Prior knowledge:
heterodimer; A: alpha/beta; 6-stranded mixed sheet; 4-stranded antiparallel beta barrel; B: alpha/beta; 7-stranded antiparallel sheet; 29 strands; transferase (chain A); PAPS_reduct_dom (chain A); nucleotidyltransferase activity (chain A)
Amino acid sequence: MPQIGYELSHLSALEAESVHIFREVAATFERPGLLFSGGKDSVVMFHLARKAFWPAPIPFPLMHVDTGHNFDEVIEYRDRVVAETGVRLIVSSVQDDIDAGRVVEQTGPGASRNRLQTAALLRGITENRFDAVFGGARRDEEKARAKERVFSFRDRFGAWDPRAQRPELWNLYNGRHAKGEHIRVFPLSNWTELDIWQYIEAEAIDLPSIYYAHQREVVPRDGMLLAKTRFLEIADGERSHTETVRFRTVGDATCTGCVESTAATVAEVIDEVAATRLTERGATRADDRISESGMEDRKKEGYF
Amino acid sequence: MTIPADRLRTETAALRGGKELLRLATAGSVDDGKSTLIGRLLYDSKSIFADQMASIERTSAERGDEYANLALLTDGLRAEREQGITIDVAYRYFSTPRRKFIIADTPGHVQYTRNMVTGASTADLAIVLIDARKGVLEQTRRHAFLSSLLGIPHLTLAVNKMDLVDWSQERFDEIRDEFATFASKLNVTDLTFVPVSALLGDNIVDTSVNMPWYHGGPLLDHLERVHIASDRNLIDARMPVQYVIRPQRSDGSDHRSYAGTIAGGTFKPGDDVVVLPSGFGSTIESIWGPGGVEVTEAFAPMAVSISLADEIDVARGEMIARPNNRPYVGRDIDAMVCWFSEDGELREGNRYVIASTTTESRASISSIAYRLDVNSLHRDENAESLSLNEIGRITLHSQQPLMFDGYRRNRETGSFILVDEATNKTVGAGMITGPVARDSNVVWHGSKVSADQRPYRGGTIWLTGLSASGKSSIAVELERRLVAAGRPAYLMDGDNLRHGLNSDLGFGDDDRRENIRRTSEVATLFADSGAIAIVSLISPFADERQRAREIHAARELPFYEVFVDTPLEECERRDPKGLYARARAGEVKQFTGIDSPYERPSTAELVVTPADGSPGEVADAVIRNLGL
C-alpha cells in the first residue's frame, strides 16, 4: 500500500474503493457473479476481486456472455486464466438462444450479435440465480453511464429506470431487493481509460495480445477499421487491407473496431491513450453509434 | 502470465507515486451556466474528445443554438437534453498533471435536493455558481447550506457571466460581501470567490484578461492547489468490520482476518484495540493491504484486512477502535435528516431499516424536533412530518446498538441511510449530531443514597446571556456566597470548560450544542451529589437550554435558568477580551450577537439586567429569589 505521507495516490484510492465494493457485495449478497469477457476492464475487475479476498479465493464465479463471435486470442486468454487461477467459469451463449429460437439473428453487412447479448445475459443471471452481478462499466465511457450508480437496481426484467435510481451516499450502498430482482454492481465506476491502463502497468497485469500492436487484415467501414474475421460479412465495394493495429476495447468481433497503432507495450499504449482525441467507444464501437441515445435505450432493455 | 497468488503482492513505483484524487460537487442551475462551466473545464483541460465535441456540435446545430453548447456534454439522459435541465447526478472525470478530479455534477432545482445531497456526500470541495446579474439568490443560499450540512470542507463561489455585467469589480465585491455575510452562519471553514465567464473561458483554466483587478488565479488553479490532506480525521481510529476472510485450507494453515475500510485515525501492528459493541480487547498482529501487501500504518480510506492476537469472535457490523478513543455506542440518535421519498413522509413512530457503517438494524423515529427551511434556515418546531426534499432534525431509536461519531468529526462514522422495508428504496440520509441525551443503551447505576439522605438538596443555576453580559462575575459571586453559607457549590464556567472537558469542540452550531449537552450532564452529577452547580454559558439556542432543562427534569433535579439581559451595545462597549472588535473585523467567526444568533429566553426563572446593580447585589437577589 504505497503512501505519500497520509495521502493515497489516485490509483491506490481507486483500488481501495473497488476493493470496498467487492467486499460489501460478498458480505451482503447470497449469489454474486462477475461478468468476464477477457476485455481489459473485466480483467482489471477480476484482478481487484482477487486482491480483495486475499488469501482466500474469490467467493463467486465468473460468467462470460459469449456471442460466438470472439477473437481467438481472447478466448485463449480466458481459458488460460481459468486454468491458472482455478476460478469457476460459467458461459452463457448467444448461440444457444439462436438455436432455441428465442432470438432472431440479424443478417447482411453490419449485422452484429452484440444486441443479442442482452437476452443471453439475462438468461445467465436467471439460470444461475445471481442476485448481484459485477460489471466492468465505467462512468467515463459514455453519457448515459455517467449517471449510473455503483449499485444499480434492476427489476425482474433486468431493466434500468434512470428516473428512479436510488440515491447513493458516502460509501453506504443499498443492495436490498426482492426475489427475482437483482443488482448490477460497477466497481470500476470512477476509473477512466487512462486509470485502467496505468493500473495495468503498475500491477503488471497480462492482457490478451490484441490490445497491443499487431498486423491484421482490416475492413474500413463508417470511419472505423473492422477486423476481417470469419464472422464479418463484407459489403459490395468494401476492400480489406493489412494494417498495424491494436484494439482499445474488446467486444463482439463484428462491431469492435481497431485503431492504427504501433504501441506494442503498456507504456506505449499509455502515451497513446493520454494523447488520443477520441473516446474509446466512439472510436471503436459501432453499436454505440446507433443514435444519440443508443446506450440509454440499451440499458433500459437490460444491457449494461 | 496472469497473476499467481504471490504476484498479487505487487508494489510498483507507478502505484506509489501518482496524483492526488479530489472529489468535487458542482451546484447551481442550468441558467447559471453550470453545465457550460463543467464543459469549459473539460474542454480547456483537453478532457473532451473529438467525437464528443462533434456530437455536441451536431446536436447544437439541430437545436438552432448559436454556438457549440458545452452543456450538452454533461446532460446525458434524453429527457435532460430535451428539457435542457439536469435531472440526476452525473459524474465527470478529468485530470491535470497534479490531480485527478471526479466531478459530481448535481441538479440545482429544489425538487432535486436529494440529488445534490447525494453528490455532495463525498465531495472535498463544492463549486456553487452565481449569475453575476442576479446575485445571491435563494438557491445560492440553499446550495451553500447543503454543502455545509454535508460537511464539504471547501466552498468556492464562481460568480459567472461576468461578461454580462461589463466585468465589473463593484458588482463582484457586492456579491462576495453579501454571500460572506450569509456564510458566516454556516459551518464553512474555507471560502473562495472567483469571478468567471464560463461561456468565454475567463478565469476557468486561463487567467482572464478582462478582469485585471482580480488577483486570485483561475478556478482550475485553485482546484489544483487547495489543501485537502488535512481534511480527514487522523485522530479517532475506526474500522467498521466489513467481511471476515477465513479461507478453508486443506493444509491446515490458518488465516483469519477482518476486512474493512479505515473510516478514521490510523492503525499499526502492535496497537491495542477494542472491538465494539462487544467490548473485547486485543492487539493488532498484522495489517494487509489488498493482495496481501504488508502495511505498517493504515489510514482512511485504505481498504485493509487486520488480524488480531487473540482468538475472539468478530463479525461484520462490529467496529474496531482504540480502548482510549471509542465511538459512541448507543441506540438513540439525534440527527439531521434529508428526506428522499415521493411515496411517503417521515413521521414520528415510522419504522425503517437504518444502515450505518457496516451495521444494519431496524429503527423507529422517536421525534421530529424541527423542520428546517433550506432557503431561510428558519426552524419550524411544530413540524409533524418531513416530505420529499425536506430536511429536519430528528431522534431515532435503533433495535441494535450503533457505533457512531458526530458527523462533524467523521463523515464515515457519522452518516447513515434509511431504507423503506416495503419497497427497499433509500428514503433518507442522516448526519448524526450525537447520542440522544438519555441513551437507553447505558444502564443507569442506581445509587444506594437517595436525595433526601444527602445533607443538602442540589440543583443547577444556569446563567445564559451574551458574551460580556456579566454572567461570569455573577457566577463567581454566587459560588462565593453559597460556599460561605456552608452549601457545597461549584462554578462551571464555559470558558474554563473549553480548556478541559470541551477542549475538542469549536464554535459551530453542532459543537456548541455538544458543549452544552456535556455541561448539562456534568451539572446533573454535581446537582445529584447535593451541590449547587453554577453554570455560566452563553448558550444561545433556546432548544439547547430546553434540553439542559429536560436532562435535569429526567433526574428530578431542580434547574434554574437565569437570563443575564445586558443589551448588545453595552456588551460591546465593555468588550473585556476584545472579542467583539475582532468579530466585527471578521477575524472571529460565528460570534454570538454579531454573526451568530442569540435566542432570548422566554421561560427563564429569573431575568437580571445591569439596572439590578453590581454582580454581588445580583447574586444576593438570585439566592433570595430562588429560595436557596
